[in-house]
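I am writing to request your help with a piece of structural work I have in hand. A protein sequence and the structure tokens that stand for its backbone fold form the material at issue. Please examine both parts with care and let me know of anything in them that strikes you as inconsistent. The record follows directly beneath this note.
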Amino acid sequence: MSQDLSRIRAFVQVFEAGGFSAAARQHGRSKALLSKYVTDLEDYLGVRLMNRTTRKLGLTEAGEVYYREASQLLQQLDELDATISDQTAEPRGLIRISAPRNLGETALAPAIFAFLARNPLASVDLRLEDRLVDLVEEGIDVALRISVLADSSLIARKIADIGHVICGSPELIRRHGLPRSGEDLKGMPCILDTNMPSHASWRFSDKGRHYSVPVSGPVRVNSPVAAMQAALAGLGFAVVPLYLAEPMIAAGRLVPVLEATMLEGASLQAVFPHRRHLAGKVRALIDHLVDWFAIQPVR
């Protein structure tokens, strides 16, 4: 098998270099050996792959087909070799991470910095911003998002559950009353966070019955922090992540409602571009985050 791969690799190297002499110089192999490997490959296949002249080297029709498939095969094998070596080595090198600002500053930063403390050969570029970044266009290795995966060109791994609560200010409840069921919200002002998959139709479960309630109100935002600020201002009820809402609830500035019936939820996901092999340093970071939040849930 190794001899077969050597012949295939020699054929690809010679064509990509533009000739036997150039390939020999680039790859530190003798011209005679490369010529022998290509001839052996042609003899084995029973077909000529290259047209050789003193001035020019070109591929036959069969050679073009063989080169296209062989070069892809060698690239996949090289990627696999690099990935396996990467998996067994200590994580090293730069990892570019995108994450929402508030969660990044609170729960994520300690977890990521603990990873760096354990892996001193690794480094991170942590970009905290409340927008949906283009991972491929902006060169991001992994995005940590509170959502469901919508883009089929990306793949994701769940890191942790993120608890949510519907809450409103005491002043809002004095003006509009306390909702006793999800249906009561139809006539009450609500804050719509467009980051939520069903931001205009909140889902509930009551005694085994699942149902959705269309909601509306004076504010639409694309940030959970802004949604909570609108709720604090008394503008409506909002679905807010627990890690944001709990300090405000403890201070009496927000009141949780319908806790027993709300079904809407989300999770913290590690999202990355679809690749055949995930870099070992990125996989190690994701594994670390899963273990971290299994012990220290996002609150």
Remarks:
- The chain has three domains: 2-88, 93-162+267-295, 164-264.
- The mean pLDDT is 86.
- The longest strand covers residues 154-162.
